[in-house]
Write a structure and sequence with these properties.
Distance between the termini of chain B: 71 Å
Strand content of chain A: 15-25%
Number of helices of chain A: 6
Radius of gyration of chain B: 20 Å
Oligomer: heterodimer
Shape of chain A: globular
Helix content of chain B: 10-25%
Low-confidence stretches of chain B: 1-18
Number of domains of chain A: 2
Shape of chain B: globular
Number of domains of chain B: 1
Largest interface: A-B, 54 and 53 residues
Number of strands of chain B: 11
Helix content of chain A: 10-25%
């Protein structure tokens, strides 16, 4: 009963969204008191569309509306059929609660036309191989708080800019003044301060990059350079492995509100130190209900404490290895895990 | 037509209250507080009047010694309850362990406003963002909202309204300490208002009054109430100065980078 209701809601939402995707151009974008297109509010870019196009859809950049809804429901079903540590509904993290909607695109990467990230330069391939070798040599256990092995690194959340898929928490709050657009990303409360005043880029690197924006008609165009090279890009569930952020990384983005509940966000990544050509992603953003509370990652980072403590215990042979995340259908799932699923 | 009338009324009020200085307005007709602002005093060292003193880390010598200050408490001394004053002295002696600033935890309110880091205000008609360079601390001021705090947070829950040219912000819903499974290295038991151990608990309620006094200054006042700690509300007052440098922008002071080894050191592989 609950499940049927869920699917009915999904289909209704899907139809509305796909309709909005098809009516670009006729929508009258609301304006701020300063006369600028109004992007303000709370948005999510949570999506069930794959980052790169699956090989079997190589020549099919678009679904029909019916196929899009079917693909969405299938992906949602797959994401639901997991035993995780959280009861998703308690955290507002079920697909309906999160505001994710079906997408006519079969991949988020829209250029190159095959929907796949272009090859890396030979130099970047060497860098990546060295990275993999280094991680393998380091072993599976976190050595310090800096290791991304179950520890949560609170310095910067890489998925914020450039935007890539995340399993949850992919929410944004946008606030505008005459000279600034502020985008707060829920995970780690990462903020982007996009100056519209035409000043040149700053000189000191920033984790989220140094962003300068301007309006082209109804579209906010943002040019971002000078990313801090201590961070990485991608490496999120659904994306290729993390790559180094380099000093030549250049991001060009466009945000266009195409309906009351939709901003079409596209970005082009250009880094000759890593890829053989620029490539472009389209990530729709849909409205969600606010407010968005602070993330406060560093303030009570129990993950870092317990992961490091347990890693030392495991090295000392005093701790069993952790359980893997299992499907409810897994006969090894515990009673508690099955109960949580219900 | 209605908007024009409203603007006229608001402007008339401004003329009466601001005497010689006429506060500029945003396109929506609100007093314009946009910009980069910063305190220029020793309030983050000690809100109360204090002499210069040696700092808590001998090796840092004069570089981290306490500069003197006349204090920013209008109606001081801070009216501690007797047992709370005893606690203040205890916490002050253990400031390196108890002060959230040392651990790069969010500074809360009003402390964010007078830390030695710039605060950028970005103002829309319904929401005012205040962003500090320190720890990327962030306040969202919900204008004309009556929503109560949905949860206790480090930066609290702030609602705002305009009283003539003055922005009045009411903040509550503050966490009073770390909770849960952290060790001594990660724990703080109360929240410091400065490095001298002046503190509050989760009973904190702050009312701030902010207005422009001229092109490059804000008048900043905060009335601080916490029945767990003080016998009555008390008030701090100071100017905030505009950062007038061309190309001013907030840098990254993501200080988690600087405290990881301090907080998690004993569980790291040597």
């Amino acid at each position: 009963m609950m499940r049927n209701l869920l699917i009915a809601t999904l289909v209704a939402a899907a139809t509305a969204s796909l309709g909005a995707q098809g009516t670009k151009g006729t929508y009258k974008v609301p304006r701020t008191p300063d006369g600028q297109p109004d992007l303000q509010g709370y948005w999510t870019n949570l999506t069930y569309t794959p980052f790169e196009r699956p090989k079997e859809l190589a020549n099919k950049p678009f679904y029909t509306a019916k196929e899009a809804i079917e693909a969405f429901n299938k992906a949602v079903g797959g994401a639901e059929n997991q035993v995780v540590h959280y009861v998703n509904s308690d955290f507002g993290a079920t697909p309906v609660q999160t505001g994710a909607q079906p997408n006519l695109r079969t991949s988020l990467v829209i250029d190159p036309p095959d929907g796949r990230i272009p090859p890396m330069t030979p130099e970047a391939q060497k860098r990546q191989a060295a990275r993999v070798a280094e991680q393998r040599a380091a072993g599976p256990l976190a050595r310090t708080w800096r290791d991304d092995r179950g520890t949560v690194w609170c310095v910067f959340h890489d998925r914020a800019v450039p935007a890539v898929t995340a399993p949850y928490g992919s929410n944004y709050q946008i606030v505008q003044s005459k000279n600034y657009v502020i985008m707060i990303y829920e995970w780690n409360s990462e903020r982007r301060i996009i100056a519209l005043d035409g000043q040149p880029h700053g000189k000191v690197p920033l984790y989220a990059g140094d962003s300068r924006g301007h309006w082209e008609g109804n579209t906010l165009v943002v040019d971002t350079t000078n990313f801090n090279t201590k961070r990485t890009f991608m490496g999120s569930p659904g994306t290729p492995p993390a790559v180094d952020m380099t000093p030549t990384f250049h991001l060009t983005e466009r945000f266009t509100r195409t309906a009351d509940d939709t901003i079409v966000h596209t970005y082009t990544v250009n880094d000759p130190a890593t890829w053989t050509r620029p490539w472009t992603v389209e990530m729709p953003m849909h409205t969600i209900k606010g407010p968005m509370l602070e993330y406060a990652c560093n303030e009570n980072n129990v993950d870092a404490f317990t992961t490091l403590r347990n890693a030392r215990a495991q090295e000392a042979g005093t701790l069993a290895p952790p359980d893997r995340v299992r499907s409810v259908d897994d006969p090894k799932a515990t009673v508690l895990e099955r109960e949580e699923k219900k | 037509m209605i908007r024009v009338t409203l603007c006229a009324v608001v402007l008339a009020t401004a003329v009466v209250s601001a005497q010689s200085y006429k506060t500029p307005r945003t396109a929506s007709g609100q007093p314009d507080l946009n910009g980069f602002w910063q305190a220029l005093n020793t309030a983050n060292w000690d809100l109360e009047a204090h002499e210069a003193a040696a700092g808590p880390v001998q090796q840092l010598g004069a570089a981290y010694a306490v500069p003197p200050g006349a204090g920013v408490v209008v109606d001081g001394p801070i009216p501690y309850k007797p047992d709370a004053l005893a606690m203040k002295k205890k916490y002050a002696a253990d400031a390196l362990r108890e002060d959230a600033e040392v651990k790069c935890y969010l500074p809360g309110v009003p402390r964010m406003m007078y830390m030695p880091y710039p605060v950028q205000i970005v103002q829309s008609a319904s929401t005012i963002m205040m962003m500090s360079e320190f720890a990327s601390a962030l306040r969202t001021i919900y204008m004309n909202s009556t929503t109560p705090p949905p949860a206790d947070t480090w930066m609290g829950w702030s609602t705002g309204r305009w009283d003539g040219d003055t922005l009045v912000i009411d903040s509550k819903g503050f966490l009073g300490s770390t909770v849960g499974a952290l060790d001594d290295e990660g724990s703080i038991h109360v929240r410091f208002l400065d490095r001298a151990g002046n503190y509050h608990t989760d009973g904190l309620h702050v009312v701030e009054r902010i207005r422009r006094t001229d092109a490059d200054h804000l008048s900043y006042q905060a009335t601080i109430e916490d029945p767990n700690v003080y016998t009555r509300p008390w008030t701090i007052s100071m100017p905030l100065y505009r950062r007038v440098e061309p190309n001013m922008q907030l840098g990254d002071f993501k200080c988690e980078e600087f405290v990881g080894d301090l907080i998690y050191g004993k569980y790291q592989r040597k």
